[in-house]
Amino acid sequence: DNFDDDAVVDQQSEIFELWKMVMDRFALPLLIDLCDKAGLDPPPHEACRPGVCSEPSPKTTSVSAPDASSIDAAAEDSAPSSISIAEDSPPIQPPATSTLPPPDSPPSVLCTSLLGSETALSCRIMAEDLVLDTAIRDWVLIPLSVVMVLIGVLRYFVSKLMRSSQTPDVKIVKEGQMMLRARNLRAGANFIPAKAFRARKIYFCNEENGLLFVPKGQAQNPQAQMFSDPNMAMDMMKKNLSMIIPQTLTFAWVNFFFSGFVAAKIPFPLTQRFRSMLQNGIDLSTVDVSYVSSRSWYFLNLFGLRGLFSLILGEENAVDDTQRMMQMGGFGMDPSKGLSAEKDNLDITQHDWALPNFEQRAEAVLRKVVN
Amino acid sequence: MVTKTEENQLNRLESQVDNAGGGAWEYLCLVRKLKLRRSDKVLKHGLSILNNPSKRSALGPEEWTLYEQVAVAAMDCQSLDVAKDCIKVLRKKFPDSKRVGRLEALLLEAKGSWELADKAYSSLLEDNPLDQTIHKRRVAMAKAQGNIPGAIEWLNKYLEIFMADHDAWRELAEIYVSLQMYKQAAFCYEELILSQPTVPLYHLAYADVLYTLGGLENLQTAKKYYTSTIDLTGGKNTRALFGVCLCTSAITQVTKGKSKEEKEGSQVQSLAAKVLEKDYKQRAPDKLPQLTTALKSLTLSS
């Protein structure tokens, strides 16, 4: 084995010698001459003195103290050779302009390549482009979406089965219709005479027996009613449960099976703040925040599949989690609040009778018809 | 309100079906969707589908809706046997259904046994106090019996709960007009205008009522509403044009001795008169002389 190692080392040193020769004796002098002739700056010192490194690694150009004398010696060496070349050629042209290949020559390319690789290595350690396995797409993203769609459809059918026929309360229907009527009044107020409008406004907003007026005591009722009325409470419970349980289960499943790897790359750059949210299973802090885990894919699906559900299940049946979650917050003061809101709105509505304008418009119309 | 495309489609389907060109089912669906009252056609074509077992089974679950539609149409055309058969079939299929119960009560009403029908409706309402159609049936029954005040009472009770139902307001307005209770009718029309401000029909009716009520303020308001109708219909509504002329002359008659203000409203009147003349010239030229004399008398009296 020692023998083999020695042979390998010998081969390496031979190659190195060859490389040194080519560099020092041919490429570099040619480069310097070209730069001289073309009037360019001479190549930098690092490129001039490559040969001092101990290991034969062409990429790294270690910079030793440039030996000025050796450069001159190299230049002088090359100069007579070039002159001799010039002299040897037939004296048609003066020696200053020897026939030289155009400046875009291999030596300059060699030089820049030596430089370029070094700079390339040093700066780009941060955002390397991860290549994600297509298996991730096949076995994580698509199955997760499919599962969520299926769960949504299942939930819809289950809710349809479990739906208890609600007998709406007369009072609630009445209030709903009243709100509609008040809203119409506000919308069309400018189309009816002022007297009529005022009469209706009083009818609705009168302090004692106005329709929209809800005395303070009653305002508490809906919430208490919500909790005491067993039917309604059961309904709310059922609705909430039917939403919470599948969500929790799916989330746990995603966490259990699909954690610990990068699932997708978000096409736009994000700040570091999002790292804890999006990269939950990935424990590397140097990975770009755009690479997210499958948990964020789950959330994306959760909020984004509403459109798909409204396509599949029909317009109103879209299992809309986000809206339901928002509704969970505001629990039940809706009817009375709606009424008092309507009353306030109606109170501030001014009456601006639009009919006189109509008269002028009619004139214009008639004029057009006549002419 | 039926849109133009739907109207065209309906007419096309109707002519197609009448000439035995098929498409009966689409026609029936369209009629049901638009809630039109073409009972004779519905009856004829519906029965043709129902009596044909293969076509009937091709409908699938829609078959029962068709039965219901045909039953109602049969009652409207007074062919009560057909209706009874349809209802029997439905009752066999849906023994506990409120919808079928409603149809049976409707049958009783069609037969003319008012008390039985009334009892049936009341019992149905007890189960479901918020069924709008049953309330309306009760109103219709009272009206059919000639009991207009009773109809008004039921309708008012209905509107207390369902006050955003503009069809009900319209019905009430027409009943009031028939009873010459114009103030209440005006109130109803105001409700209608509030809910649908761009429908010229309501403006026109309101203006008519106001003109009938009389009094300077009402006349002026009526004139304004006639002009708004003209605006909304683009000057094509003959009744509104006449209304404008009549209103103006009535106003000037009332204010003859009172104030000498020059109102520029006469422009509208003269314009309206011109448009009327043009219209009559185009459509009924033999009546034109009558029109011109009438208009002249209006302007003369002003």
Automatic annotation (TrEMBL), chain B:
Its membrane topology: Peripheral membrane protein
Keyword Repeat: yes
Chief place of localization: endoplasmic reticulum
A Pfam match: TPR_EMC2
Domain of life: Eukaryota
UniProt cross-references to InterPro entries, sorted A to Z: EMC2-like, TPR-like_helical_dom_sf, TPR_EMC2
Record keywords, A-Z: Endoplasmic reticulum, Membrane, Repeat, TPR repeat
One GO CC annotation: EMC complex
The UniProt record lists the keyword Repeat: yes
Family: Belongs to the EMC2 family.
Function: Part of the endoplasmic reticulum membrane protein complex (EMC) that enables the energy-independent insertion into endoplasmic reticulum membranes of newly synthesized membrane proteins.
Protein name: ER membrane protein complex subunit 2
